[in-house]
Structures are given as C-alpha cells and as structure tokens.
Amino acid sequence: MDTNLRRRVRAGDHDAFGELFDAYARSVYNHAFRLTGEWAIAEEVVSLTFLDAWRLCGRLDEEGGSLGPWLLGIATNVTRNTRRATRRHAAAVSRLPRDETVRDFADEVAGRVDDAVQLALVRTALARLRRTEREVLALCVWSGLDYRAAAEALGVPVGTVRSRLSRARTKLAKHMELPQARGQVRGDRTTAVGVLKEESR
After folding, report:
1. Which residues form the RNA polymerase sigma-70 region domain (predicted)?
2. pLDDT, tens digit, for every residue of 76-114?
3. Could you tell me which of 39, 53, 47 has the C-alpha nearest to residue 153?
4. Cβ atoms of residues 104 and 42 within 8 Å
5. Cβ distance 71 to 49 under 8 Å?
6. Are 74 and 56 in contact (CB under 8 A)?
7. Which residues in the chain come in under a pLDDT of 70?
8. CB-based contacts of 50: which residues, under 8 Å, 6+ apart?
9. How many CA atoms lie within 13 A of 65 on its CB side?
10. Which are the contacts of 182, defined by CB distance < 8 A and separation ≥ 6?
11. What DSSP letter does each residue of 36-75 carry, written as one string?
C-alpha cells in the first residue's frame, strides 16, 4: 500500500494527498510539538509540512517503504524555519512600547501550575541538548523510527543517528531530576522523557 500511495503522491494525486494527511498528520503534529513544546506552532508546522510535501512530491522516489520518514524529515526542516521566524517576531515585539495595563492572569495560571512545572522540568532538560540531538530523540524515541528511517528523515548517515541519540540519552539521564526516572534509560524508550505526553485533540 505504501508503494502504491508513494507513486500516487509523486504523481500529484489529490486523493492520495488526502490519504497521506489522514495517515500521518497526527504523527507530524506530535513530532512538531515534541520539538517546540508549543501547540500553536505544532499546528502551523503540520500545515506547512503538507504544503511543502505537495511542492516537493515530484522529487519523491517511486520505490520505498513508509512515507513517514519523508514527512517527518520535511517537518523537522519546517520546524527549524518556523522557530527562527518565531524568534525574530518575538524580538520585534519586544522592541514595541509596552502597554501599561497588564491583565491579571492569576486564576488562569493557578489552574495550570502542575502541568507547567512538569513541562518546565522536561523542557529545561531538553534545552541542554543540541538541536540535532533533540531532533534524533524526537524521531527515534517519541516517533518510534528505527535508526535507518531517522537517518533517511534527517539526510544523515545511520552512524550519526546512533551517536546523536546516545549523547542525547546520556545528557537527559544526567539532567532529569524526577525521582521515579533518575538514571533509568533503557532501549529505545526512556522513562525520563516519558513525562512529556501530548493530549490527543
């Protein structure tokens, strides 16, 4: 089925792109959230990823397996560009005159404290990783790609994926301070990063 879908996508078949979206939009969304920690940005990344996939479909190889690595590779690049644009926008906004009236967010913040503390802990640990390490971690650990598929998504050798993932695991084990997760890093899944779970929408 993947081979047939791949050929139809490559040919620019609109119905095939509908099937592609239905099959992989959730995976792309989750991957983007894991890289950014922002729901709104993840939603934007999904739209831009499938737009780029449509634009690049003619370059897709006719033969191959799952289209997941191809889409996640596009999503990774889109996320990089989107985050750069977001940083530029935030810098521009910070230079604008500030409104003297500040809305009281106390009630809203109080209702989200637990989630915010947990997410902050994970994001602090992830922030210590290099961007390339976070990308490999997101692909191999959270998206479940094997080394070869992750290498295809990122356009790097399999050995590079292995070494980046190994460094990422070591750094996370060192910097995560959750009592139930301290020092537990096994296989392709880690308890330490498991605290970051997306709510299905």
Report:
1. 20-88
2. 999 988 877 666 656 666 666 655 444 545 455 544 545
3. 53
4. no
5. yes
6. yes
7. 1-2, 85-122, 176-201
8. 17, 20, 21, 25, 28, 71
9. 9
10. 173, 176, 192
11. H--HHHHHHHHHHHHHHHHHHGGGS-SS-S-SHHHHHHHH
Q: Record the pTM.
A: 0.61
Secondary-structure percent of the chain, ordered helix, strand, coil, rounded to 5? 70, 0, 25
Single-letter code of the amino acid located at 80: R
Which residue do the tokens 């095939």 mark? 16
- Count of residues making up the chain: 201
With 0-12 / 13-18 / 19 or more C-beta atoms within 10 angstroms meaning exposed / middle / buried, residue 86 is middle
The SS3 of residue 102 is coil
For helices 39-56 and 14-36, the axis angle rounded to 10 degrees is 140
Pair 117, 66: CB distance under 8 Å = no
